[in-house]
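We store chain and fold; thus.
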Amino acid sequence: RYYGSLRGDRWRGGPSAPGAPVVGIASSRDGKGYLLLAGDGSVYAFGDASYHGSRGPYHVNGIPVGIVVDDKTGGYWIATDRGSVYNFDAPFYGSKTSGHAAPIVGIAALHDGAGYWLATESGYVFGFGAARSLGSDPGQDITGIAAPAQGDGYYLVSASGRVFRHGNIPYSGSLASPVSTDPVIGIATP
């Protein structure tokens, strides 16, 4: 369902207009709303998604690359390409601001809010809290990470559309070959 966009006037939070393009979206706990994350760290809430604050504009260490909702609290985490994680009414389990050469490209969380994962462009995954790393795919051009509501694991997606599964979660396939010259830039789970 559509709950509004930044072209309208139905959001909560963030400045009157984003100072950077939108770089992420996350569904509310019940799916009746969503949050948009701008590249300047601003967060915008639509529908029943709760606004808990933001780091925008431009009060972040790096460029924001992802947002994920804590299903337990309704708060959320924001990750940057440098590995910083900012928490808003969600527990903080740590950041990965050193020890990785490739930029962080995404964040995914355990369905119970007990931890989260950060994925790098080069295919490495770092776990925080109860979210332990279940495997990586070095050498892949990873562009996103997502975790399903059921099971223990996560999916990584590459720019070419290959999907990699780690943990005890179902696998539904990948793109057999790229369907366009544009890269795949993200992944989501139902």
